[in-house]
Amino acid sequence: MSLQNLINNWFNVDSNTSATILITILVFISGILFTEILKELSSYFRRRKIRKICDFNFKNLETGIEKQSKYYLKYCESLNFQNTSGFKFTSIIIHSINIFENIGYSNIYEAYFFGFENLFKGKKELKAFAKLWSSVVAIPQWQNQMKDIMENQIQNFNKWNDFRNNSLAEFYKIFDPLLVLVLNPDTSTYLREYLLQLDEIQVNFQIKSNYRNLIIVQESMVLPTLEINRKFKHISETHNLNPHLLSSTMAFENMEKNLNHNLSQAKTYYFTFKGYSKLVKIAKTII
Question: Which of 74, 81, 275, 281 qualifies as a cystine partner to 214, CB 3.0-4.6 A?
């Protein structure tokens, strides 16, 4: 029995009426199917567009993270007393992160895991996506944290350097007039010997081509002078010079600790970003 005959029997109508009912039902169903197909096609093209944007920006994300890691490495290389051009810390803007944030997690997740084209994706792809998104979230936080830490440590280093410079300036205010006593005939032999040894330290120190280098100042001037002062500790002038030399030494040691701590943290960030770069490179090929 045909569908039309069933309608005739069920609703007790003639063939013309049942035909009209049947056509209406078919048109209605066709309309729903057509609408759903259009919606699915629209969703498909939207997902494909988002995937293309994300695929391009995942590559840019990898490149940006790698570039930032190289800047951290350059910063590590600048953290030493031999460096005369200042510490080179650079934090870059990775624009792809802003693009991901603007698209939104749910839209990106839908683009990679919803629809018929993503039917065969499973746990492996989900884990890779989770790692990618964790990178998008974590990288700006690491960058901001690193920037704050490095700026504070550079300020701390400069504070101790200023303290050191002031201590040495006070030392020379006392030291320079002392040398004049060498020419004074009333100066004792013991004091003259002391002053001549101090002068020899200064001459040997200042003939060095890089005598302003922090390490050279400490090792070729400050420490030898302290050693001479211990040898001639009974001369009262040593008691005026030593506090400034000791203050300078304390500042130098704090600067050294600061550099070592700064270097340790900078290396941590370098290796962290290096790891994130590799993670993104692998994960983006999986999803």
Answer: 81
Q: What torsion do the CA atoms of 262, 263, 265, 269 make, to the nearest 10 degrees?
A: 130
User: 130-152: string of b/e by CB count within 10 Å (b at 16+)?
Assistant: ebbeebbeebeebbeebeeebee
The rounded distance, in Å, linking the Cα atoms of 84 and 67 is 24
Q: What per-residue confidence (pLDDT) applies to 142?
A: 94
Whose tokens are 């001369």? That residue is: 235
Can you give the three-state secondary structure of the chain, one letter per residue?
CCHHHHHHHHHCCCHHHHHHHHHHHHHHHHHHHHHHHHHHHHHHHHHHHHHHHHHHHHHHHHHHHHHHHHHHHHHHHHCCCCCCCCCCCCCCCCHHHHHHHHHCHHHHHHHHHCCHHHCCCCHHHHHHHHHHHHHHHHHHHHHHHHHHHHHHHHHHHHHHHHHHHHHHHHHHHHHHHHHHHHHCCCCCHHHHHHHHHHHHHHHHHHCCCCCCCHHHHHHHHHHHHHHHHHHCCCCHHHHHHHHHHHHHHHHHHHHHHHHHHHHHHHHHHHHHHHHHHHHHHHHHHHC
Task: Give the predicted TM-score (pTM) of the model.
Answer: 0.79
Band (pLDDT 50/70/90 cuts) for residue 183 is confident
State the pLDDT confidence band at 191, using cuts at 50, 70 and 90. very high
| pLDDT 10s digits, 38-97 | 788 889 999 999 999 999 999 999 999 999 999 999 999 999 888 767 787 889 999 999
| Angstrom distance (rounded) from CA 145 to CA 268 | 12
Structure tokens given for 257: 């600790």
> Residue 81: which of 271, 268, 257 has the closest Cα?
257
Q: With pLDDT > 70 as the criterion, what percentage of the chain qualifies? A: 92
Tokens of 222: 């400050």
